[in-house]
Amino acid sequence: MCGHDQPTRSVLAEHLCATARDRGLRSARPLREGDVGMDGTKAAEDWLSPLRQHGLIPRGALAVFVVGSAARGWHNPRSDFDVYVVTRTERVSSSGGTVPVPLEPPRLSTELFYTQSRRWDVTYWLDSQIDQIFAKVSWEAFETGRVTEDTLVLREELLLGRLGSCLPLLGEAWLARCRSRLAESAFHSFAVVRSLGAADDAVEDALGQLEAGDLESATISARLAFGHVINALLESHGEYGSHLPKWRPNRFKAVAPQAISFADYWRVETMEGYDPADPAPWIEGVLTLCQDLAMRVETS
After folding, report:
1. What angle, 0 to 180 degrees and rounded to 10, lies between the N-to-C axes of helices 172-184 and 127-136?
2. In which order are the strands placed within the sheet that holds 167-170?
3. How far apart, in whole angstroms, are the C-alpha atoms of residue 249 and residue 201?
4. What is the pTM for the complete model shown?
5. Nearby residues of 21 by Cβ (< 8 Å), 6 or more positions away
6. CA distance 74 to 135
7. 192 phi and psi, to 5 degrees?
8. If we measure between CA atoms, which residue out of 98, 114, 125 comes closest to residue 50?
9. Of 165, 211, 249, 287, which has the fewest CB atoms closer than 10 Å, so is most exposed?
10. Are 190 and 23 in contact, with CB atoms under 8 Å apart?
11. Both ends of the chain: CA-CA distance in Å?
12. CA distance 217 to 43
């Protein structure tokens, strides 16, 4: 195939199994100062003031923290502001809404408001719901095979993935305990193994499509495989958020993995060198790179 070593179908699968066995020694990376977009008492109060003005911080709230792009300093003038509020009792409001989650109770309360032309989305989590999420990714569940790619829904995974990079406004002691629980859980392994498994599936798809001469589909599958293996690499460094590919370049820069430079990553992400008239060399090169990167994802 055009001078490239064709990746075998078994390499990623074998690496996936090794990851599941060995991942337990790895813990989530600690929060670093550069992870937050704002800090200090004044900045926290600037965030809290609009929430208080709208009556959105319940008495006895355990924690309030900004999540998403604003917490990382990645936001732009059109970005929404996302805030999580943790309480012991369920919020009841005539102005807000609810979203379903596979927890008890099976819903989250939400509020939406605008201030200074900026949309604010506030989500209320119960402390007991967060306990349930941690139970889903316990080491007992992981080691007995009860943790699968479908174990967490998107909102649950985003919550855990954002704990290490959020901007605390209230309840820093509560948040510190939650981060310790995250580091001691199997969430890290869950995320990496899930992404490696998705990469493995996409590589197999691409190889089959190449063999069948379906080069357009093989191109898409190769791109998907690369995205998944980069996600696994970033997750191995504690950078979660694989469901939001728009932030993948920022997540990459945040950890600067040694396995691949940003320039090389970006060349593949933007399909540099792809020739629609002869796509096979590009596809094969990407699949070989996926194989190499998967083998370099840290498993201990």
Report:
1. 10
2. 97-100, 107-115, 118-126, 81-87, 63-67, 167-170
3. 23
4. 0.84
5. none
6. 31
7. -65, -45
8. 114
9. 211
10. no
11. 35
12. 48
CB-based burial, 217-254: b 16+ in 10 Å, e otherwise:
ebbebbbbbbbbbbbbbbbbbbbbbbeeeebbeebbeb
Q: What is the pLDDT along the chain (300 residues), one digit of tens a residue?
A: 343 344 443 445 444 444 444 433 233 333 333 333 443 345 899 999 999 999 999 999 999 999 999 999 999 999 999 999 999 999 988 889 999 999 999 999 999 999 988 999 999 999 999 999 999 999 999 999 888 888 999 999 999 999 999 999 999 999 999 999 999 999 999 999 999 999 999 999 999 999 999 999 999 999 999 999 999 999 999 999 999 999 999 999 999 999 999 999 999 999 999 999 999 999 999 999 999 999 999 754
Measured in degrees and rounded to the nearest 5, phi and psi for residue 36 equal -105, 150
Say how far apart CA 120 and CA 122 lie, in whole Å.
6
Report residue 133 as tokens. 């999420």
Cα separation, 6 vs 4, in Å, equals 6
Strands (E), 68-185: 81-87, 97-100, 107-115, 118-126, 167-170
Residues in contact with 287: Cβ distance below 8 Å, sequence separation at least 6, in sequence order? 6, 7, 203, 206, 207, 222, 225
C-alpha to C-alpha distances, 72 to 34, 164, 170, 202, nearest whole angstrom: 8, 11, 17, 30
Nearest to 188 by CA among 300, 291, 67: 300
Cα–Cα dist 268/274, whole Å: 9
- The rounded distance, in Å, linking the Cα atoms of 230 and 225 is 9
